[in-house]
Amino acid sequence: MEVLQAIDRNKLPKHIAVIMDGNGRWAKERGEDRVYGHHEGVLSVREMVNTCAELGIPYLTLYAFSTENWNRPKEEVNALMELLVNTIRKEVDELKQNNVRMHVIGDFESLPEICQKELNEAKEITAMNTGLNLILALSYSSQWEITEAARKIAMDAVAGKIKPEDINDGLFHQYLNTAAFPDPELMIRTSGEHRISNFLLYQLAYAELYFSPVHWPAFRKQHLYEALLNYQQRERRFGKTSEQIQTNTPQHV
Ligand code: FPP
């Protein structure tokens, strides 16, 4: 409670991105199967979504399945896909009621058809919502996304739609999966790993990075409040000096 009171509601990040790590370790510590950890992780997803909505944070991106996760044992991949479908099916009405709009980034076509169908329905059902934008990164990796962007830019250049001299940071952003969203200002990774692991490499250029030792299934709203307070205690300089920051507002967020 005390931590929540210390948070300045006017200085919240507009976009939080999360690497939800440690489901397997959390389960193993309890003598359970890894998949049990993923199931419990969904409860943390729920709490994270509700808390961000309550705080009025407009964008939340969750790294739910990476390109590299396809290399996990087949049973675990299937269990994760099934969990995804069942969770979306179960939660979509509440997302709609809570004014949450769902988006997906990643290699959508590589997902099983049933997942694509469920995700498309959820996107459609929540399309008119104006509160929290919940962005699920699925079959996503940043190197894949950047390579795809480069390929599409090259194709548009060859087709004469853009000129090579028009290619700049702003144009490149438009070719990323995240073109419609502002860049994250805070990236949280749970479970004590200090890596970005192919997640939003381009978009995290100016994000504050927060690493929590807590495994994802144990990550509760109190932990999010602590991350937010820690974020607010940092000085965001965007490459400028402290003196400039005290007199200027950053241009690129
Ligand atoms: C990382 O823990 C977690 C994942 C690969 C999957 C995260 C997915 C969920 C929490 C369910 C998502 C559901 C929805 C609806 C978004 P890990 O398995 O890598 O843990 P470990 O590092 O301890 O092995």
From TrEMBL:
MF (Gene Ontology): ditrans,polycis-polyprenyl diphosphate synthase [(2E,6E)-farnesyl diphosphate specific] activity; magnesium ion binding
Similarity comment text for this entry: Belongs to the UPP synthase family.
The protein, known as: Isoprenyl transferase
Binding site residues for Mg(2+): 21, 208
Source domain of life: Bacteria
UniProt entry keywords in alphabetical sequence: Magnesium, Metal-binding, Transferase
Co-factor binding details: Binds 2 magnesium ions per subunit.
Subunit structure: Homodimer.
Class of the enzyme per the UniProt entry, highest EC level: transferase
Transmembrane residue ranges: none
Residues at the catalytic site: 21, 69 (proton acceptor)
